[in-house]
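quick one: adenosine-5'-diphosphate bound model?
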Amino acid sequence: DMLSMFAHDMKNPTIIAEGFLSRLYSSKAGPLTERQSKYLELISDALNRLGKFTTNFLEFSRLETKEYKTSPLPFDIATAIKKHIEAARIEAEKKDIKILFEIPDDMTAVANADAMQIDRVIFNLLYNSLKYTDSGGTVTIKLLSRDKDILVQVMDTGMGIPEDHLPYIFDPFYRVTRDSKGSGLGLSIVKKIVEATEGKIWVESIYGKGSTF
Ligand code: ADP
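yep, here:
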């Protein structure tokens, strides 16, 4: 309850601050010096991170309090993934990371799930891969049709996860290192959604080589 209240109360001030910041940044309140612009950019990055934290906290507490219901409907998961890849390209190019998408030619990728929730899953996994992969690396999303379900693999050539951390990686607030820029909630949200969809999620990783979720 506290987490949920906290996240709710944090959301509005963050949005208001972002709004005024964007006014300042676009020189609507007068011209800016180069140093002022630089500082505003740093404030904007920090607020952005705060925004992501609160969104994660809110989402996590929603999933915890059982308000969460899935509304499964058939949807084209390949198209959903392609949209995410297009949206992530700018971020990937900034880091010189290649994103590939692999799907068998004859595959119809219709999943029966809550499309919005699956969007969240794909977004979290894709951005984690980008976050934990160094420049020059590759992130691949691969689809495979199986007997009764679809296997979606998000693979990266990133830093990987040490073996002794693997059993805890989906636990809420768990991070391999404390200097991670995230909240450690992303993967626990992913797991809750996947399991509520009667799916399964697991990870295989070689430290220093990369991970596959
Ligand atoms: P965070 O917000 O910290 O990224 P997550 O729950 O998404 O939280 O991930 C938990 C931890 O798992 C991360 O802090 C990171 O240490 C590790 N992790 C997640 N995805 C990857 C990945 N693709 N490669 C390496 N480590 C990862």
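Residues 128-129, 132, 156, 158-161, 169, 174-176, 180, 182-188, 211 surround adenosine-5'-diphosphate (CB under 6 Å).
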